[in-house]
Amino acid sequence: MAPAHRALRISRRSALKGLAAIGVGTATGALAHGFLYERHRIEVTRETLDFADLPASLRGLRIGFVSDIHRSQTVPHELIDSAVRLLLAEQPDLIVLGGDYVTWGDRRYVEPAAEALAPLTAPHGVFAVLGNHDDDRDMPAALVARGFTVLRDQRTQLTIRGETLDLAGVRFWTRKPADVAYVLRGASSNLVLLAHTPARLVEAAALGVPLVLSGHTHGGQIVLPGLGAIAARDYPLIAGSGRRDRTSAFVTRGVGTVYVPVRLNCPPEVAVLTLKPAADPLGER
Hints:
- This protein is α/β, with parallel strands linked by helices.
- The protein folds into 2 domains: 1-36; 43-277, 4-Layer Sandwich (Purple Acid Phosphatase, chain A, domain 2), CATH 3.60.21.
- Helix content is 28%, strand content 23%.
- It has helices spanning 2-36, 77-90, 110-117, 138-145, 177-184, 201-206; strands spanning 43-51, 62-66, 94-97, 126-128, 149-150, 154-160, 163-170, 191-195, 211-214, 240-244, 247-251, 269-277.
- The strands form 2 sheets. A 6-stranded mixed β-sheet has the order 1-12-2-3-4-5, covered by helices on one side. Strands 6-7-8-9-11-10 form a 6-stranded mixed β-sheet.
- A hairpin with a 2-residue loop joins strand 10 and strand 11.
């Protein structure tokens, strides 16, 4: 009997080693796929968002949204150029940029990042906020030099189809409700808040902002089956559209990568967001 038991133990050990090898192989293959292929496969996401009390004249307004390009040694010009061309092909009414144009404020890539985005144009302009990786001098100057409007705790007012639309942008570190409210003071009810981090959805909902557009999370960048986006669990919204009270929100997965040049189950994207009046205060259709 002893040899039989020993053979059984050896078989189990061999099976466990085999399963472990398969697991390592699967993980390695997934990471290789995320590095070689998925991080380069930019998608165009088209969504229709509820907007509380949106005037009929602004129904169907299309906003192009790009964020988190992270121009760096591992995020080349070609990737950002592809994102720009995809968005321009959609012909949005206006374009917003959500921040993190470089990684860790690397000044070598400030001008290349701005130059890659330079072709962006829209009938009602291109507007930008800064992310936590952007410096407060060189990056905004490079964007302004390309004709973009950078909103640093500022608000601007557009007239579109004879109707007023306010765009407000807050810095990443502007987080106190009173500070956010100060930026929004005097805005019309047709207000879009650009905030690099979706954490600002909490303050926006408390202030009755109809729409918040954010990036920062990369959608998690690495999304594991059964576990989800572990790196972004602390945010009220990780990716895509959502709602808090009367406030709608959209969080883009962004274009580039940070920490590791890998995307898994989370391809990069540019977004085209179409506005429609909310059916009622609860967002029911």
